[in-house]
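Async update (no meeting this week)

Hi team, since we skipped the sync, here's where things stand on the single-chain job. The sequence we agreed to prioritize is pasted below, unchanged from the tracker. I ran it this morning and attached the output directly underneath so nobody has to dig for it. Comments welcome in thread, and please keep replies under the output.
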Amino acid sequence: MTGVSRALALVLVVLAPVVGAEAQQTGRVYRVGFLAGTSADTVPLRSLREGLRELGYVEDRNITFEYRFAYDRNEQLPTLAAELVRSKVDVIVTHASPATRAAKQATSTIPIVMVSIGDPVGAGFVASIARPRGNVTGLSNNDTGLAAKRLELLKEALPKLSRVAVLRNPANPSVASQFREAEAAARSLAIEVQAVDVQDPKDLDAAFSTMAKARAGAVTVMGDPLFLSQQKRVADLALRKRLPSIFPRSENVEAGGLMSYGATLADMYGQAAVYVDKILKGAKPGDLPVEEPTRMYLVINQKTARALGLTIPSELLRRADQVIE
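Output:
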């Protein structure tokens, strides 16, 4: 064997483990868990999958998904989270605060990408927005900071408004901070607020009857998966009780609610794909800052306004990002 041949053989021997490792890494199939307290049709999973596809992930080739949905029964979330942990997924994506709490309690090692969280610090999911630490990061919807703005929008639409019902789910760890913000804003707007709690869909009818008996002039709905999954029913009840309504998500307005103001779920889920990609490539979730929305959308349903006999001020309509006729 010549000196050149011996040198080439030595190089091949040295490189063989590296080439093998690269091939093995390239052939890896990542497993992404997904946990939500709602059903699949209320979460824009398509945005998550499309975002990952744009980053080079092909379903059933180098990535697969494990889905768990509680269908508005949050008491099942801990069991579903434990199932994902046992299935040894590489990362868990969670929708909203109840699912994030269940996942965080189920594992301190598997990375968690939370989506649509009202108050991630106040809920105890992360140490801070800039430095989450631990195994959780993701996207806040800033619903806590926007609770006051939604009351202001209601007052602008209804200048004589003096009493507002606040529909909330007390089981949601972010709702307390949302309600505090709403109370503070109500005082400055000379509005009295009445908390109406619902943890189960079967209690929605009674909740709206309570609002009507208390002579509420409108209802503001706190961010929670329950009210998103029950969007049509909540909108219908508000209309039946002649209550102008405002929500965090535009989906509620498309279902018949009067107004919404907040970030869009589709945008947040598209950005969640970026977090998943970074984590699968080795980033630590505790080092990835939580992202807060920079773009808010005001959506107004004029059809609902007419059904309620309301005339939305023209200035408010001009500021709307979408007007549903």
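Quick observations from my side:
Residues 1-25 have pLDDT under 50 and may be disordered.
Residues 3-26 form the longest helix (24 residues).
Reply here if anything looks off.
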